[in-house]
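Researcher: Re-running this chain for the archive, since the previous output was lost when a drive failed. Same request as before.
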Amino acid sequence: MGEYTKDARSTRRRKTRGLGIATVLGAAAAVALSPLAASAAPTPDAGPTIGGATVSDTVIGVRFTDVSADLGPSYALGDDGNAYAWGLNSLGQLGDGTTTNRLTPVRVAAPAGVTFTEVAGGEGFAIALDPTGQAYSWGQGPYGQLGDGDTQSRTAPVAVQMPAGITFTDVDAGSYHSLAVGSDGLLYGWGYNGQGRIGDGTTTQRTAPVQLPTPAGVTFTTVDAGSTYSLALASDGSIYAWGQNYSGTLGDGTQNDRATPALVQTPAGVTFTQISAGNSHALALASTGEVYAWGSNLGGPIGTGDTSGDPVLTPAISAIPAGVTIAQISAGSSYSLALDSSGQLYSWGANDNGTLGTGTTTGRYVPGLAQLPAGVTFTSIDAGSQHALATGSDGKTYSWGVNSIGMLGDGTSQNRRAPGLVRTQVTVTGVTFDGIPGTDLVQSDGAWSVTTPAYCGPSDVAVSYTQFGVAASVVFDDGYVFGSAPTITESPTPSVVVAGQSATLTAAADGDDAPTVQWQQALTAGGPWEDIVGQTSTSITVNPTDTTYYRAVFTNCLGQAITEQATISLRASTGDPGTGDPGTENPGTENPGTDDPGTENPGTDEPGTENPAGGGSSAPGAGASSNGSASADATLALTGGGAPWAPIAIGGGLLLVGAAGLLLRGRRLV
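Model: Regenerated structure tokens:
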């Protein structure tokens, strides 16, 4: 199959224990590296019940948080925990269950329930790590590089055979070999072992992970697999290397291969926080911020300004511009990339394929700025063999370089010399409001607008869309409200009525849709309230027999509103004593006899002390006339009291008002 000119990436930045890109870039990077959800609720979030309003929003969909560029394919980790891939797939290296090349990203077909925290591409295969530390791999496997115990190729992820009691904290894929850091802090390798690249002291092919011999007491945090050699970063900041050393990639001052990990020669007191193994040169980021490089310098990837092309056998400082703080590094095939703390991209080395991202194919021997999209900075980078990838501060993914097999992921096979967008478009297919479809859908890359249907009340807004060929949806609970709740605009007015008379009450309320009304009554101010059957208009006429309380309840799909209560009180149906009784005679002005009743008692007895009917004390309405030839009866009542009239006899044709405030009502005496 021949040796592959593989350039490994520095996806290891995720394992630099707080010294990686997210820490250096601060809040901006933290936002970009965090999962991004769909945007806020649709705008506007309320409208009329008749529908016809235009509602819009944007579905962001899956965003990529990390990227890995290889010779033919590209890989990315989604903020949904899935891995995605595009480009060359002749060996199943995209992991989607097929061998079909893809011009845009597709989802890796992970086992049910499995998500990933890391993904890395090797030559013709890939490896990923789940949250529990279990490794998975897919693609070609003739050298055992999949680590599942055999040499079969796989078009979808399979579990790596893990060492007993060990999980992995970091993984990487090289040219037919794989590396890992165990939960014990030790190194593991498997797959093709030419030039001792596995690092177990042999050149024997391994189909499952084996532990590598390392110095006693040394533990590791990060591994990076080059094409034919390997690097590891120790917990103390030192670097170990093994495998092929023809170009000085082991950094030990020689060009001798090594089958076990050995220290890279570094200046006294210098420690490192990141490593990146390219095709035939390596990079490391020092804790002081300098970039060191060693190995092949053909085309200038070491970045010292040396144009001789001679290999550099021990780490040398790349000529990063003064005042620039580098946050991340990545070594490709004869070129190098670095990201500074502000998200600006520096590049140097060979540029035949536009991999420097400058818009040209002119190489350079010292670091210089690349072209970035307007208004965008980068949050992560990865240098592949002939193309490069980056994630942007806008949450989008960018690519540049060779695109002959679709590795740029833009839907074409056209090369690109400056960063352009990877196609991650969201296609909105429908929007419903509590299951009722909106109409007149307009959409573009997740942005959508629709016309609302007729409905009343709060509705869940469900947006259906596809991305990477996968159907999905996002639901905004109560995301849009149709109509408005009732609001009282008029309450009934309290009044006092004469018993037997009626009163008319009115009430009104606004609301969408138009609220219904139900009148209620109660005998006490605090209730209980009872519906008045059939009274469902805004006015009501009542005939209470006692003091009664009334109110109106307005209701629509959004709730109720209740008017203030109105009290209808009763008063007696009586006359006015100052103007005369509504009867036929006025007892205050007419004397039925010939004498003044105010000065003379018409009978022999005083009505106030004796009952004219004989016996007992005087009680109006109880006696009869003592005058046998003349008798009369009348009606007596308390003024304004509404008590029944009582008949009394008046003798001698004379009227005597025996108590103040009494009215005599009756017919003429004879």
